[in-house]
Amino acid sequence: MIVAEATKTATGTSPIDQLHALVAADMEAVDGLIHERMGSAVALIPDLARHLVDSGGKRLRPLLTLAAARLCGYRGIEHVKLGAAIEFIHTATLLHDDVVDASALRRGKSTANMVWGNKPSILVGDFLFSRAFQLMVDAGSMRVLDILASASAIIAEGEVMQLKSANNLATTKSDYLEVVSAKTAALFAASAEAGATIAGAPSDLIGAMRDYGQNLGIAFQLIDDALDYSGRQAQMGKSVGDDFREAKVTLPVIIAYERADEEARRFWRRAIEVGPQQDADLKRAISYVEETGAIRETHARASHYVDEACLALAPLPDSELRESLIAVAEFCIGRGY
Known about the structure:
Layout: H1 15-22, H2 24-37, H3 44-53, H4 60-71, H5 78-101, E1 105-106, E2 109-110, H6 112-115, H7 118-139, H8 142-165, H9 173-198, H10 203-227, H11 232-235, H12 242-245, H13 251-258, H14 262-274, H15 281-291, H16 294-312, H17 320-334
Antiparallel strand pairs: 1-2
């Protein structure tokens, strides 16, 4: 599997940037609609929403919707509404996540809950969910509405499942993957599936796009969780060790704990299950994660899901868009190196 540097062109653009260029006009329309629909007479709402919406995110999920629609031959405009709706769903979940996790930094900026407080962040997240459903209805497809409404419910279930796994070293790899599939991959899958569905694609192509999104989403989260124990996390605008400080039991921790000797197990139990954590604990946790090969295995598992994502695209017509989606999946792995 190729690494991040190898997936950049001579001009220095990433595969995500290249995908963006292929649907640039559609993406410009999505951005315009996002800014139009997050407006409100209540000034705090657009101010807080814009803080996150305009913070430099790649809009990857809407990109999947636009690319899937065009790849499946769509020539209409309703996919623009779906792209905006999906970005609103994603932004709302981030606002809620940051409150639940008491996060202080996202994409290199102070989180909305740190700037405005928890209550405004939750309520603006609710507002964005409402806007998302208005856009879904406007798009005029009951099937797409069902796809995105179901994904929203699954995401919420994933958040609750993650709460159960916090501070719990009995969490299994299966438990973890169930959380990741719900909390992260469900929206990736729904984004790609919605684009193919609005295009009126046959069921096999819709299923192919859904499988691509699902596998990409799992790989994306696996790499994110590995990065939490890596110096590269800081380069991406996030604090190293956020998951550790929040006592989240992610795959690197599960693997490191499985392979730990008794001294290391005592450390993990104190740091994750009992607390409080000490100043030197993060450095020690990173050392254990590296020594046990937990990061390598997490990368290997992510590579498996990237391979599955690329294979899922086999039924789709050969095109620049299809190759770009494959490159995006491979680039996902490169973020971890």
